[in-house]
Amino acid sequence: MKSFILISSLLILFSCKQSNNTGNSSDNGQGKKVYGSPKANVTNTPNNQKQQGPLAYGPNVPKIQDGDTVVVKFDVSHKTFHVKKDIVMAAWLFGDSLPGPVLRVRVGQTVKFSMTNRTEDSAFSDMSLMMNMEMMKPMQHSIDFHAGMVNPADKYRSIAPGETIDFVWTANYPGVFMYHCGTPMVLMHMISGMVGMVIVEPEDGFPGKVDREIALVQNEYYLKQAGPVYRADTAMALFRQPNYVAFNGKVNQYTLRPIQVKAGERIRVYFLNVGPNNISSFHIIGTILDKVWLDGNPANQLVGMQAALVGPAQGAVMEFVLPEKGSYTFLDHSFANASLGAAGEFLAE
Predict the structure, then answer these.
(1) What residues form DSSP beta bridges with 56?
(2) Which of 86, 94, 115, 210 has its CA 20 to 30 A from that of 23?
(3) Same structural domain for residues 336 and 282?
(4) Using CA atoms, how far apart are residues 37 and 151, in angstroms rounded to an integer?
(5) What are the two backbone dihedrals, phi and then psi, of residue 8, each rounded to the nearest 5 degrees?
(6) pLDDT tens track for 247-295
(7) pLDDT tens digits for 63-96?
């Protein structure tokens, strides 16, 4: 009888444990994961709320917001964008720039996201784009968060001009993740500017203290001239022949205007290669990368690296010290990319 009671008790405990692992969450020893979310909502009513949430444009890094839920809002528009002084392209943008805004959240936080497709408005407000009817016409767009674990057919669906999509996703893993438009032809939407970065911190924050944080996104341009502006060219992209490669959207901007830092301070760079094609070998002349967390996850740590190899749609967190005052060039050590614009300077005072 005692044996029967013992076996029955064990079966009940096992059954309870199994029932706790069903549904939309799981705890696999790395913290509770949230899988999926309620169905996305698409309406024909624009969300006129201004850009909202823990957002910034690189090289600036936004601050973490407290709370279990973070409300994030940015829209899609068609605008001209200055790739460099004499090159203006007809761009498709998240927010107001290329790349889109950097979003920063913490593992366990739920992102309540909203995006309105404003291409119908922006197309007719920009006279330069009116010269290029194909690039300026209103069209469908979408957003794909690599940091999310949700049904893409639902949350990452395309929305028509004037429509707004609302959905939620929860950050399950730390890292530096990409977001981009997933509307076909995906390549065209990406090289037209629809890319951005998400930083997901561990629940207790990234280990160690740093004095400065910097966000760098590397992207490639495949452009051909079309009237007064340039436009993205998928044929060039398919042959992997970029005109330019840039950090944070503008060619050689940090060579012309170096990033100001201090000698001896600990610097953390959140790096993302949005590609879409080339591998980046990020290197800083004059120092060593003390720590490199592949894909931005501290569990994937390398130490004492001369360069960080980052493929398309991959990220990294890098920490280093610039040992003394001076100018330190950072670049993609795939020198074809550096020659096309993937280079800049840290000016250490």
Answers:
(1) 102
(2) 115
(3) yes
(4) 8
(5) -60, -40
(6) 999 999 999 999 999 999 999 999 999 999 999 999 999 999 999 999 9
(7) 999 999 999 999 999 999 999 999 999 999 999 9
Give tens-digit pLDDT for 145-204: 999 999 999 999 999 999 999 999 999 999 999 999 999 999 999 999 999 999 999 999
Token pair of 115 as six digits: 């995006």
What pTM was estimated for this model as a whole?
Answer: 0.90
Sign of the CA dihedral with 104 first, then 107, 110, and 115 last: positive
Instruction: Characterize the bridge pairing of strands 32-34 and 25-27.
Output: antiparallel
Does any domain span residue 23?
no
Query: Is 271 buried (19+), middle (13-18) or exposed (0-12) by CB count in 10 A?
Result: buried
User: In angstroms, rounded to a whole number, what is the distance separating the alpha carbons of residues 223 and 267?
Assistant: 34
Q: What is the CATH number of the domain that holds 197?
A: 2.60.40.420
Cβ neighbours for 4, distance < 8 A, ≥ 6 positions apart: none
* Residues 6 or more apart whose Cβ sits within 8 Å of residue 219: 98, 99, 195, 245, 246, 249, 274, 275
* 229 & 185 share domain: no
Q: Which tokens go with 221? A: 């341009």
Boundaries of domain holding 118: 33-201
The reply to whether 315 and 236 lie within a common domain is yes
Asked whether residue 13 is domain-assigned, the answer is no
Q: Which residue has tokens 């639902």?
A: 154
| Same domain assignment for residues 40 and 185 | yes
